[in-house]
Amino acid sequence: MRKAVAVSALALVFVTGCSSGAAEPDGLSASDPGPAAPSAAPAVAAAAQGSDEQTCSELLGTNGKGPLYRATYLLKIGDGTSGFGGSAETARDLSEEIRGITGRAPQDMEAALEELASPMDAAIQRAENPNSAWNVNVETWKSAVAELLTRCAPYETATDSAASTSASPAVPAPATADTTSAAYPGYPLIVDAASLDYRVAAWFSGRLIDGRVTALAPGLYAPYDPNVPDLSSYYTADRAVGDGVMKHIVFPGSGNAATWSAVRPGSQEPR
After folding, report:
1. Which residues of the chain carry a pLDDT beneath 70?
2. Distances, alpha carbon 187 to alpha carbons 6, 13, 56, 248, 252, in Å
3. Of 199, 179, 197, 177, whose CA–CA distance to 189 is shortest?
């Protein structure tokens, strides 16, 4: 009798293709699991990425001291040469800081950030092995810096102190058009932004009314507005962009935001 029951159960499996305990809902078999559930991974990854504003705030820091400013200051570029102007420890700290930002940045900023860190990585490698090659493509690096400056300029929130725009016992009065012209003949004048140092040109990119700036002094500029033709009105510290040393000469006591080292006069300026 037991044999007959076992045979009947086996026949049921052969005929129906399943046993009562192994049946799949909705006619699906174990070998056909059906459409996979959508993965939440892309949404999680997107949520983990920061916004442009968050990333740029980290890159710019305060008063011109963020890693984007420091990286451009420390890479010394000459005629066909380049080198890192800091210690291996400085390079390592800056590289780690930039890579930390990269991990949180929007995906389309990652390539530029990786390139921004390349001189630091090369400096670390050189410190560990003095015979290693200096693998820094200056033009590629400058393009990455320009891309980041253009993207981050709208998020620069640092403002210069009131002391930089008014005389006080501690801070000399800022320069005027007359005093600047006496010290630097030919200034102020209007020039094309395309004629400027790549960092300044990138900073102004997409933010000018007609692609021109007011050259306040050698290497120092303010966005030009055709509706404001009086060039003397552009001498305010919060507008000035360009060479850090020159900005402090023209506007004593001003901040370091939107300034860089060794910004040379553009091709349309007095020589």
Report:
1. 1-49, 158-173
2. 105, 96, 33, 17, 18
3. 177
3-state class (DSSP) for residue 242? strand
Report d(CA 265, CA 175) in Å as an integer: 18
Residue 50's pLDDT is what? 79
Tokens 């600047």 appear where? 180
CA atoms of 180 and 203, how far apart (whole Å): 23
What pLDDT score does 49 carry?
67
Q: What does pTM read for this prediction? A: 0.77
DSSP 134: -
| Contact criterion met (CB below 8 Å) for 247 and 220 | yes
Of 204, 104, 85, the C-alpha closest to 149 is 204
DSSP string covering 29-43, please? -TT---SPPPPSHHH
Q: How far is CA 43 from CA 39, 48, 49, in A?
A: 8, 9, 10
268, amino acid identity: Q
Note the pLDDT tens digit of each residue in 40-54: 444 444 445 679 999
pLDDT of res. 184: 96
Query: What is the C-alpha separation between 49 and 151, in angstroms, rounded?
Result: 16
217 three-class SS:
strand
The number of beta carbons lying within 10 Å of the beta carbon of residue 65 is 14
Residue 25's pLDDT is what?
39
CA-CA distance, 122 to 84, in Å (whole number)? Answer: 9
pLDDT value at residue 43: 47
SS3 state of residue 174 = coil
Which H or E run includes 15?
A: helix 2-16
